[in-house]
Amino acid sequence: MLQTRFTKLVGVEHPIVQGGMQWVGRAELVAAVANAGALGFITALTQPTPEDLTREIARCRDLTDKPFGVNLTILPAIKPPPYAEYRAAIIESGIKVVETAGNKPQEHVDEFKKHGVKVVHKCTSVRHALSAERMGVDAISIDGFECAGHPGEDDTPGLILIPAAANKIRIPMIASGGFADARGLVAALALGADGINMGTRFMATKESPIHQLIKEKIVANDERETELIFRTMRNTSRVAKNAISSKVVAMEKEGAKFEDIRELVAGARGKMVYATGDSDEGIWSAGQVQGLIQDIPSCAELVSRIVREAEAIIRGRLEEMIVHPQREAAE
């Protein structure tokens, strides 16, 4: 068993997190992750209304008695969702850990802290992590350039970003972006993190509420099957490479503005990918870590395998590399 500052903070067995994923972070996946001894997050804005979120939290409680959390992502929008109402639904449902992401979450952090809720803030740079620490969050989830979704605009991969953040952050930190197996967990711990966050890897599990054909597509894809869209708009997003993402990238190179591509990247089309299994139906998120995903296990199988193999790497492969000259001389 691997115990870290993060497992102690949130009261879970294993230093593995399934972060918020739009259209994917639903009760059946989150409960399976929780039952496996890891920490899962329901995605608040996947639920159409705060009342729906309250019902989804209750549904998850019916499926597990272990700790789980809710993700609340705050993004600029023409018509913003009622964030305060979603926040109230989270608090009133007795959730004890929240993952925030996006714009400065100070108002939300203050309100959550008032009610004894632990806050894990997702960020893509050391400066944003330090800002979140000053705001009073309890832990950081730091996203390297490899990640699915928004990697920020600095293009800093995890191998640099994680230790750079560990040098300056005092609170527990989860490493995110590019993690799928035991090797990644051990590497993250060695780089100074207190655990790992996995998104794309948890999409390809038995309990993941997306179409089987998309799970199989993730397994079939290699590390090159992603594309960076919205680069020209300084709102970069890493998505699975398909006919639509390639078209968006080509249009951006020709100077297209958001209005020109709005219909192609509509969230409703992306949602249909997971419902129909047609990987070219719309834009959908996936990380470069697809190149490390070879199967579709249950969440319990996945988590136990990662922890078991991580312990074997630490006790076996790494320990064997340490040479003790005095001991060898004595022998």
Question: What labels describe this entry?
Answer:
monooxygenase, Aldolase_TIM, globular, 15 helices, two-stranded antiparallel ribbon, alpha/beta, 331 residues, oxidoreductase, 14% strand, single chain, 8-stranded parallel barrel, Nitronate monooxygenase
Describe the structure.
This protein is an alpha/beta fold and 331 residues long. Helix content is 43%, strand content 14%. An eight-stranded parallel β-barrel has the order 1-2-3-4-5-6-7-8, surrounded by six helices. It has a two-stranded antiparallel sheet with strand order 9-10. Strand 9 and strand 10 (237-240) form a beta hairpin. The longest helix has 22 residues, at 299-320.
Helix and strand arrangement:
Layout: H1 5-10, E1 16-18, H2 27-35, E2 39-43, H3 50-63, E3 69-74, H4 83-92, E4 97-102, H5 106-114, E5 118-123, H6 126-135, E6 139-143, H7 158-166, E7 173-176, H8 182-191, E8 196-197, H9 200-203, H10 212-220, E9 226-229, E10 237-240, H11 243-253, H12 258-261, H13 267-276, H14 299-320, H15 325-330
